[in-house]
């Protein structure tokens, strides 16, 4: 009886999750009357604006990941190694983006860095891109920091660092050749989550007036019928591909096989 | 001049003084063990030599050079850790060659040195494996090879055998000593295992509460402990309260039986000590002192049987060899114990 109830709840949950997705995919395939086709996808992929915004967001994602790795890995490493007392404070700080809405942050940026401020970043395209990059890095901070910190927990950071130091390695070598490769799976997990966040982000990109994929999705949604569903399916597939890649990387990481053993 | 000198080394963590006025000189090629219980400061001394801790005061010189202000990666030391600390993302060969790669050695030279080191530790065919594919003993050997590969001036071993099982521990410690002697490298070995320290060291520093209680050869440390702590910590020792009858001539009594040491003793009372192996069951030739007692405990250890006797209210442990045809005395048996007065140690208060 209990077993049947558990299965029923699971099934109900599954339907609740899958049904809207199935509806979305089904609708995205229904552009041609009476037959299923990939017409909506063809139209979307042929749109130069799609290619432009998609490329922009991919580039921004990669830059955000790069910046995030350069910021988070040394910070989490240093906190674990030298300032373990500061860990709760840093964790709290990294959680801030979850409680401060993106719109508040971006208005703060615009107010601080507008054309009449001491650092008029919004006055140039590069400046706005830089601000958006910082915003994205901030949004991804909770996920990136947690992923890296969890990765660092699985290795003996202090002893590995001391071993490398005793062999003549400096901080850069230690970080690049010892710490980073050993938390690579964790870093990639954080990176894929960051990629997914940046690809779908709307608020910051829209208010900083940058040609990102998020605002393009919104624009299409407001003006077209089938294409937004095709775009949503594409965005959803990207997210799932990222999750699949996390699994793949974890599975094929050579030196962590023993831990999974 | 000594190769490595440590002068008036002090280390405090907050109000806690963990190393107090520590002095030591080590000759080139010497194997020194820092021996003591947990929390005595031995690892802190080692970490200060390595550069992982900064001394509160004092000086450390390696080959005449003050290294206190140098970072760990500038000190030319090799270190082996208790937890192996092999880099999990690198193969055995890459681990061994890491130090050489870091200091910019040419690739071919790295390869030949790695091969040489792997042969030295007896694992010439395991270069392509990852650390997780090795046993604990193999991992620690690789850690040793990795530490030695860049030809450091000093080798530091921080309880390298503690995580291994008993048999591997014995064979690996012999291997470490053989490699150290072959290379002639100055070595500091930290351990809390007295047997380890006694078996492989040129000299031992027995540490207690941040102080070097005694520095000496294993023979000196074992046979002539300088303090009550050293006497109690190194080996098993019977401490016996003795009533001094003639302090100048060294006449005293243990459990009512007269003992003539022939050495000056403190007036009133003295603490004498005897190793279990210097006491014989029954009257033995060459032993000049006989004590009467009653067996209170029998502990069969295989080749040796450790017996415990009550001698005039004092507990004395002593050893007898196992003889299959002669069963050991049972508790309650009245026995005689014999010992030589010259084997008795006078323990300073």
TrEMBL record, chain A:
One of its GO terms (biological process) is transmembrane transport. Keywords: Cell inner membrane, Cell membrane, Membrane, Transmembrane, Transmembrane helix, Transport. Coiled coil: none annotated. The keyword Plastid does not apply. Residues 54-247 form the ABC transmembrane type-1 domain. It comes from Albidovulum denitrificans. The keyword Amino-acid biosynthesis does not apply. One of its GO terms (cellular component) is plasma membrane. It is a multi-pass membrane protein. Its main location: membrane. PROSITE patterns: ABC_TM1. Belongs to the binding-protein-dependent transport system permease family. It comes from the Bacteria. It is found in: Cell inner membrane; Cell membrane. SUPFAM superfamilies: MetI-like. This is Putative spermidine/putrescine transport system permease protein. The chain crosses the membrane at residues 53-77, 89-112, 118-139, 183-208, 228-249.
From TrEMBL, chain B:
This is Putative spermidine/putrescine transport system ATP-binding protein. InterPro entries: AAA+_ATPase (IPR003593), ABC_SmlMolc_Importer (IPR050093), ABC_transporter-like_ATP-bd (IPR003439), ABC_transporter-like_CS (IPR017871), Mo/tungstate-bd_C_term_dom (IPR008995), P-loop_NTPase (IPR027417), Transp-assoc_OB_typ2 (IPR013611). Residues 4-234 form the ABC transporter domain. GO terms for molecular function: ATP binding; ATP hydrolysis activity; transmembrane transporter activity. One of its GO terms (biological process) is quaternary ammonium group transport. Keywords: ATP-binding, Nucleotide-binding, Transport. GO terms for cellular component: ATP-binding cassette (ABC) transporter complex. Pfam families: ABC_tran, TOBE_2. Signal peptide: none annotated.
């Amino acid at each position: 009886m209990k077993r049947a109830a558990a299965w029923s709840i699971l099934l109900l949950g599954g339907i609740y999750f899958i049904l809207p997705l199935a509806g979305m995919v089904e609708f995205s395939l229904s552009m041609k009357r009476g037959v299923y086709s990939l017409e909506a996808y063809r139209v979307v992929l042929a749109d130069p604006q799609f290619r432009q915004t998609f490329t922009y967001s991919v580039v921004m994602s990669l830059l955000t990941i790069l910046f995030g790795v350069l910021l988070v890995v040394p910070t989490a490493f240093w906190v674990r190694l030298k300032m373990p007392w500061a860990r709760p404070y840093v964790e709290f700080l990294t959680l801030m983006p979850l409680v401060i809405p993106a719109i508040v942050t971006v208005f703060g940026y615009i107010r601080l860095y507008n054309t009449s401020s001491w650092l008029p970043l919004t006055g140039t395209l590069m400046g706005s891109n830089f601000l958006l990059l910082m915003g994205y890095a901030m949004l991804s901070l909770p996920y990136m920091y947690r992923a890296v910190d969890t990765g660092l927990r699985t290795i003996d950071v202090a002893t590995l660092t001391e071993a490398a130091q005793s062999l003549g390695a400096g901080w850069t070598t230690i970080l690049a050749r010892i710490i980073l490769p050993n938390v690579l799976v964790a870093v990639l997990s954080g990176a894929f989550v960051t990629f997914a966040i940046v690809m779908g982000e709307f608020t910051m990109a829209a208010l900083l007036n940058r040609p990102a994929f998020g605002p393009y999705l919104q624009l299409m949604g407001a003006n077209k019928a089938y294409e937004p569903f095709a775009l949503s399916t594409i965005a959803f597939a990207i997210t799932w591909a990222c999750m699949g890649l996390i699994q793949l990387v974890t599975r094929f990481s050579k030196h962590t096989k023993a831990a999974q053993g | 001049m000594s190769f490595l000198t440590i002068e008036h080394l002090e280390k405090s963590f907050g109000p806690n003084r963990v190393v107090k006025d520590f002095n030591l000189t080590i000759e080139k090629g010497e194997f020194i063990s820092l021996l003591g219980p947990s929390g005595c400061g031995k690892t802190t001394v080692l970490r200060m030599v390595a550069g992982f801790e900064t001394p509160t005061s004092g000086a450390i010189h390696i080959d005449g050079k003050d290294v206190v202000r140098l970072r760990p990666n500038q000190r030319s030391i090799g270190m082996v850790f208790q937890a192996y600390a092999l880099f999990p993302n690198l193969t055995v060969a890459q681990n061994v060659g890491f130090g050489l790669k870091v200091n910019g050695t040419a690739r071919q030279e790295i390869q030949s040195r790695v091969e040489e080191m792997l042969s030295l530790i007896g694992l010439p065919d395991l270069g392509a494996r990852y650390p997780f594919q090795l046993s604990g003993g193999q991992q620690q050997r690789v850690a040793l090879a990795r530490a030695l590969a860049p030809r450091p001036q000093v080798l530091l071993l921080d309880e390298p055998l503690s995580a291994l099982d008993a048999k591997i521990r014995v064979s690996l410690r012999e291997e470490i000593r053989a490699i150290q002697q072959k290379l002639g490298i100055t070595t500091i070995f930290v351990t809390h295992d007295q047997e380890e320290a006694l078996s492989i060291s040129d000299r031992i520093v027995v540490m207690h509460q941040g102080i070097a209680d005694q520095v000496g050869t294993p023979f000196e440390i074992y046979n002539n402990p300088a303090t009550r702590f050293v006497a109690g910590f190194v080996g098993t020792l019977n401490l016996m309260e003795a009533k001094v009858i003639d302090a100048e001539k060294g006449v005293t009594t243990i459990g009512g039986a007269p003992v003539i040491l022939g050495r000056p003793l403190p007036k009133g009372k003295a603490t004498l000590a005897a190793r279990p192996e210097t006491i014989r069951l029954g009257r033995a030739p060459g032993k000049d002192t006989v004590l009467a007692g009653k067996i209170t405990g029998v502990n069969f250890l295989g080749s040796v049987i450790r017996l415990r006797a009550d001698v005039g209210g004092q507990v004395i442990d002593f050893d007898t060899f196992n003889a299959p045809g002669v069963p050991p005395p049972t508790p309650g048996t009245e026995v005689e114990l014999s010992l030589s007065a010259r084997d008795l140690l006078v323990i300073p208060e």
